[in-house]
Specification:
8 helices, about 65% helix, alpha+beta
Length: about 300
């Protein structure tokens, strides 16, 4: 508006219209005097086009914001669904573990009791009776060990009995004993109560990472660290010095996909850093649970 008024004032002061007419009169055969009207129409058309573009841009922005809101809502829904699925899965594993312990464990104990009785009360063919009892006893022991192995796979007992830190320490020690590769575990001071879902996710991701190291890495050492990230998030890092891999050519197996889903269900992320010949580092970051920020911190513990 100010520019228009200023232009009108200057045109009136210098009588631009009359000057244009005097200049255009010798060029009447070119119809130059019609240019102002044509340019006025062009200016009006451009103004209308700019107005329409601005209106379309606002409409597109509104549609984009609506689509982004729907995408965020869908993502939150998917994360909640994944969280519920993992919770149901762990609940079923816990129930199955209890059933195996109550039913099969008692059965194994009964078999061993019977074999002990046979050894004490042998029949006429005492040697055959004792041999049969020994075989039954060995079978019962194998069955009992198999049940204990299934229980550990279904639900980490140490996680319930000892807590997260001690369970991860025991996991690293048992993995080191099986693989023969040093596994160094270190943790920072953390709240005592992180929540069952967070504890299980950290334990399972560590378990999967160590399994991958044993299968593929050919590493000479592994470091497991649990602490806080620079942004204050809960961070788990599992790093080996093995042969590494090319992330561009690698495909994630079901184990890493499951770990990624666990991280997403907790509102976190799973990152894999690797290059050929330089080892692999798996980093899990999840938000620190709100209730845990006020909990009493655990004392520092020296690396294993």
């Amino acid at each position: 508006m100010l520019t228009t008024l200023a232009s009108y004032g200057l045109a009136s002061f210098f009588e631009l219209s009359e000057r244009v007419q005097r200049w255009a009169l010798p060029h009447e055969h070119w119809q130059v005097d019609e240019l102002p009207f044509s340019l006025t129409v062009l200016a009006g058309g451009l103004a209308w086009y700019a107005l329409r573009r601005a209106r379309d841009a606002r409409a597109q922005l509104a549609l984009r914001e609506q689509a982004e809101a729907q995408a965020r809502e869908l993502l939150m829904h998917n994360q909640e669904l994944a969280r519920q699925l993992i919770a149901v899965q762990e609940s079923e594993r816990l129930a199955l573990a209890r059933e195996l312990h109550d039913e099969l464990g008692q059965g194994c104990a009964a078999v061993r009791a019977e074999t002990a009785l046979i050894r004490l009360c042998g029949a006429a063919d005492r040697a055959a009776t004792l041999a049969s009892a020994e075989r039954a006893d060995r079978a019962a022991q194998q069955l009992y060990q198999a049940v204990r192995g299934m229980l550990r796979r279904l639900r980490p007992a140490n996680l319930d009995e000892l807590g997260l830190i001690a369970a991860l320490q025991e996991l690293c020690e048992s993995w080191e004993e099986r693989s023969g590769v040093p596994c160094i575990f270190h943790h920072e001071a953390l709240p005592r109560e992180l929540g069952d879902a967070v504890d299980i996710a950290l334990y399972r991701v560590t378990q999967e990472a160590l399994t991958n190291v044993m299968r593929h890495a050919r590493a000479s050492a592994v470091r497991v660290k649990l602490g806080r990230s620079a942004q204050g998030e809960l961070q788990l890092s599992v790093e080996d010095d093995g042969r590494g891999m090319d992330l561009a050519a690698a495909t994630r197996g079901l184990g890493l996909l499951g770990a990624t889903e666990r991280a997403a269900a907790l509102g976190g992320e799973l990152e894999v850093r690797a290059s050929p010949g330089a080892g692999v580092q798996l980093v899990l970051r999840v938000p620190m649970p709100a209730a845990s920020r006020l909990a009493t911190a655990l004392p520092d513990k020296a690396p294993a």
